[in-house]
Structure formats: C-alpha cells, structure tokens
Amino acid sequence: MFWIGVVAGLLAGVVALNVAVLRLNMKLDHLGRERSNLRAESAALSVQLSSAASAPRIQGLAAKRLGLVQATPDETSYVTLPH
C-alpha cells in the first residue's frame, strides 16, 4: 500500500511539473508574438518618422505654409570667421 501512495505522489508531481512547463511555454509564446508585433510597429514608426523628416517634404511645407523658397546661389553669402 505504501508503494502505491509513493507512485501516485510521484505521478502527481510529474503532472504538476508538466502543467507548469506548459504554462511557461504558452507565456513565452505570447511574449514572443508581442515582441514581434512591437518590432513591426517600431519599424513602421521609423519609416513614418523618416518620411516626415525628409528634406523635400519640409521644403514643400515651408513653401506652401510660409511662402518660403530656397535661396539661389547668387542670393547666398558666406561669413568667414577668424580661427
């Protein structure tokens, strides 16, 4: 009778251990998918930021909203600073 109790206890322990491992694997899978989604979202935001900060876009907005135009070379002057 004693051995039956020991074997039953060991089997219950193995089942409990398998359930715990399964739960951890499910959580790990969920976190992996979440990480993948966040990386994809970060890449999309990086593309948006890059296009929003592009020089042609900013020049177009400056011309449209503020009436600014890029200076021509003959309108540009340089200042030489002493060392």
What oligomeric state do the depicted chains represent? Answer: single chain
Q: Mind summarizing the main beta sheet?
A: none
Please tell me the overall pLDDT: 94
Number of DSSP strand runs:
0
The share of residues in extended strands comes to under 5%
> Measured on Cα atoms, how large is the radius of gyration?
33 Å
SSE ordering? HH
Strands, helices and their partners?
Layout: H1 2-52, H2 55-66
What does this structure look like?
With 83 residues, the protein is mostly helical. The protein has helices at residues 2-52, 55-66. The protein is rod-shaped and about 105 Å long. The termini are far apart. The relative contact order is 0.04.
How would you summarize what this structure contains?
Helix content is 76%, strand content 0%. It contains two helices and no strands. The relative contact order is 0.04.
What are its keywords?
83 residues; mainly alpha; 2 helices; rod-shaped
